[in-house]
Amino acid sequence: MFGHEQITQQPVFFVLAVLSCFFTIGYFLGKRKNKNLFLTIFNELIDVIKPENQTHGIIGGTSDYYADFTLKRENPLAKVDAKVTLLPRHLWPYLPIAIIRDKYDKLLIAMHLKYKLREEGHLIEDNYAKSRKAKIANIDKLINANVKWGERDFRIYCKSRKMRDEFKEFINNNSNPGTIKHITFIPNQKKCFIFMIPQKGKVAKDLAPVYQWILSLTDK
Q1: Which residues of 82-100 are buried (b: 16+ CB within 10 A; e: fewer)?
Q2: DSSP code, position 160
Q3: DSSP collapsed to 3 states, 93-151
Q4: pLDDT digits (tens, 9 = 90+) for 93-140
Q5: Low-confidence winner among 39-48, 53-62, 117-126 (lowest mean pLDDT)
Q6: CA-atom Rg of the chain in angstroms
Q7: Residue 35: closest CA among 88, 103, 82, 80
């Protein structure tokens, strides 16, 4: 009887051991992949922002990272910081669920201005605007306009036609949004936010025109 139980339990133990080994290997491979991806994103941000100093680190776990950039005194920005949220590639059993729920990696960049901007404004992709995670406060007090940016539909929210026209002029001068999803101006906080999907090799290319445009607005 005792010997029979040992025989029947051995396959179960073997399967559990194989699964444990499989998920352990997956954890370390996924962790390394996320770290390498973040470092690539971090270096591309440096190429665009050209900071005087920079720091980065993990915000807990292995999926959330931060990056802080200090700028030269003559820069119209006080500082720039970024948060990178990557898919949990180290958690193989949970990864398919995360892809369905979160869909993609995320990069949120905050530009802290030394001077208050003229007014609030948003340029947001329609599909992203419809998601639960994209919210605009006081949206009922803003004028809005539909606009085509590249092959995708976007919407402009702002308080004046002048701001609307500045958004449209930027779009006309930059025909491809790339991985940009949302550009936001928050005057009361003296901040501009850029939300994008951080695809390897595309961060600097897609961010650079937006970053330079926002810098140019601070001179107006």
Answers
A1: bebbbbbbbbeeeeeeeee
A2: S
A3: CCHHHHHHHHCCCEEEEEEEECCCCCCCEEEEEHHHHCCCCCCCCCHHHCEEEEEEECC
A4: 767 776 787 788 999 999 999 888 888 999 999 989 887 667 788 888
A5: 53-62
A6: 22
A7: 88
137 to 16, 122, 156: CA distances (angstroms): 50, 11, 14
The type of residue at 212 is Q
Q: How far does CA 126 lie from the centroid of its chain?
A: 17
What's the confidence (pLDDT) of residue 100? 80
Q: Would you list the DSSP string of 29-59?
A: HHHHHHHHHHHHHHHHHHHHH--SEEEEEES
Write out the two tokens for 8.
Answer: 């029947």
CB-CB contact of 97 with 33 (8 Å)? no
Strand order across the 77-85 sheet:
53-58, 64-70, 77-85, 106-113, 191-196, 180-186, 121-125, 152-158, 143-149
CA distance 1 to 92: 38
Rounded Cα–Cα distance for residues 164 and 170 (Å): 10
